[in-house]
Amino acid sequence: VLTENNEHESQIDTLVRSKIGKLKTFFRVLKDEISQTEISVLSSTLRQLYQDKGFKGNAKLSDFKSEDYPTLTELYNKLKDLDPEKYEVLKDLTLIIEDYTMEHGTTTIFDGYTNIKLDNEIVTFNLKPLQTEKDVQSAAYLNIFSFLWDEITKDRTTETVLMTDELHFLATNEYSLDFYYQAYKRIRKYGGGAIASTQQIKDILRTSQEIGSAIIENSHTKFFFGMDNVGVDDVVDKLGLKFSDQEISHLTKKKKGEALLLYGTQRAFIRIDLDREETRLWNKELYETIYEEPADVEPNYVEQLGLTDIDLAELEEELRQAEMIYE
């Protein structure tokens, strides 16, 4: 019989095991060729740290705020206090962790409490600053996707779309890319969807263990924009796709906005153009050149389209029904 106390304890145990599992992957990214012995000692230390923070017994998950979870500094201090034999095993890892702590480190983005709010319908993570931080890039991506995956799997009733640009940056570390792939192929089970894009398909297809190929193969809908001959050859060799001479010619011409759409077994050439409002939002200079109007001023589309009150009422009703579907 599962009592209420046992249920709380089971939830806590499940949470801690999940957190430790993700942290082991995180530290594999930070330290190349980490040994199984290091992982074993690290796991037991993390487990003890979570218990020290109150994650044990009859505690309820709902009682914990982000400030209650362990930080990297607290883990660092815990490692420093290990008995000499265990500390010797984790000495190198401890020195690496030290460089990421607030007090001692030069890179502190991993130390502290989560302050991310997901209250808006669209949430953007700007990772551009990490492009110059090659040593922490993969670990940061892994951290973010781990956080997002926790949020996505928390509630199956909320439809969520995970959109990832510049996917090739993940290809620099197989652990980060594999974590993304596992989420990518399972997200539909949680009422969600995923969209990934990259300008460097060669980097994605040439990853170890063919994880990049698996991500593309797992995508029912694919858009291939212009590629050089090497890129086309990689797609053919790694994905087993066959292109006709016409399709190859179309792709290698690399015309702006033109792509080959693959939807299951169906294929079509498409051209993607920005409409007036999209141009105003995405390319202000082009907008002002084409329409000879300031891009900062939103046009009166109701007046331009000649919409009647009845048209507006119908549009508002359609919008209301769409919002009800996604609530």
Task: Describe the structure in brief.
With 327 residues, the chain is mostly helical.
Describe the protein.
- This is Type VI secretion protein.
- InterPro entries: P-loop_NTPase (IPR027417), P-loop_TraG (IPR043964).
- It comes from Staphylococcus aureus.
- The protein contains 15 helices and five strands.
- The chain is mainly α and 327 residues long.
- The strands form two sheets. The protein has a three-stranded antiparallel β-sheet, covered by helices on one side. Strands 1-2 form a two-stranded parallel ribbon.
- It is globular, with a radius of gyration of 25 Å.
- The N terminus is likely disordered.
> Between the first and last Cα atoms, what is the distance in angstroms?
36 Å
Order of helices and strands: HHHHHHEHEHHEHHEEHHHH
How many helix segments? Answer: 15
The low-confidence parts are 1-5
Task: Work out the number of β strands.
Answer: 5
On the 0 to 100 scale, the average pLDDT is 87
What is the percentage of strand-forming residues? Answer: 5-15%
Return Rg in Å.
25 Å
CATH-level-2 architecture of the domain at 1-115: Orthogonal Bundle
Structural class: mainly alpha
User: Within the CATH hierarchy, at the fold level, what is the topology of the domain at 1-115?
Assistant: Helicase, Ruva Protein, domain 3
Helix content: 40-55%
> How would the global form be characterised?
globular
Strand sequence of the main sheet, in spatial order?
3-4-5
Largest sheet: 3 strands, antiparallel
Assigned CATH class of the domain at 1-115:
Mainly Alpha
Domain TraG P-loop: 23-243
InterPro entries: P-loop_NTPase, P-loop_TraG
Protein name: Type VI secretion protein
Pfam family, one: P-loop_TraG
